Amino acid sequence: MILRKAIAVAAVFVALGGCASIVSDSKPEVGVYSTPTAAKYEIVNSRGMVVAQGVTPGKVLLESGRGYFKGEDYKVTFRKEGYSDSTVPLKTTVNGWYWGNILFGGLIGMLIVDPLTGAMYTLPDDVTGNPSLLVSQQAAVK
Q: Is 141 inside a domain boundary?
């Protein structure tokens, strides 16, 4: 009797959730680094809106989805006085846990829950910018 209830509860969780939604986060934390350190950064989403700013090193929470079956991509621009700006793309990829829906989450998880929550996508753990020393600064160093 207890075993049947446990199986029924597990079946409900599987039916109502997607694997990626259960196991991972649709708003992952991304580390922001630069060489040299202490560079200002600005993160812009695919619509051109600034979603985060700060100084390296830092961490930001970013949405991995921007709509039904659409991943959110970003551009991270690094700026430091005496250095040229460096812009690095930050692109989403399909979350490996999304494919777990084939075994555990079923069609509801694969076609509804994970795509709507954005959990079917993931972002890299970190992004690093490498602003280059300006030519006039390089001459002054020599």
A: no
- Sequence-distant (≥ 6) Cβ neighbours of residue 139 within 8 angstroms: none
Residue in 84, 138, 96, 85 with CA at minimum distance from that of residue 120 = 96
Single-letter amino acid, residue 116: L
Q: Does the model's pTM come out above 0.90?
A: no
Q: What are phi and psi of 35, to 5 degrees?
A: -125, 110
Structure tokens of 26?
Answer: 């649709």
Q: Measured between alpha carbons, how far is 8 from 111 in angstroms, rounded to an integer? A: 22
Among positive and negative, which fits the CA dihedral 8, 102, 73, 126? Answer: positive
For the chain, the domain total comes to 1
Instruction: Identify the domain containing residue 54 by its residue range.
Output: 2-131
49: domain CATH number? Answer: 2.60.40
Q: Answer whether residue 139 is part of any domain.
A: no
Hey, what are 60's tokens?
């930001």
Residue-wise pLDDT for 14-62, tens only, equals: 444 444 455 555 578 999 999 999 999 999 999 999 999 999 999 999 9
